[in-house]
Design a protein that fits this description.
mainly alpha; 0% strand; single chain
Length: 115
Amino acid sequence: MTQPATQPAIQTEHQEHPIKLYLVVWGMLFVLSLFSYMVDYLGLQGYLRWSLILLFMILKAGLIVAIFMHMAWERLALIYAIILPPLLVLVFVAMMVSESHYVLSSRMTFFGTGP
């Protein structure tokens, strides 16, 4: 009986990113968090407050996904597979909000404001 030939060593491609990149991103996340807290500290109200909070939240999530989850170095097809569904959910939510305003407007027009 002969022994099978040994398998050639499988080359795995491994990327290492400099620690400076992670420290810079960590610093950017810290600054964006500081800005988020400043929105509350300054007492901003209304749409400006919520717009700024959402903007900082999206920027922080984007940095985390791009750098710490290594999406910046992935193939475009994988990026689309992960990013596209949440974007479509946001589009559908915007459509539902728009429809809810229309329904409320119709009810106020036809049924009045009182009970």
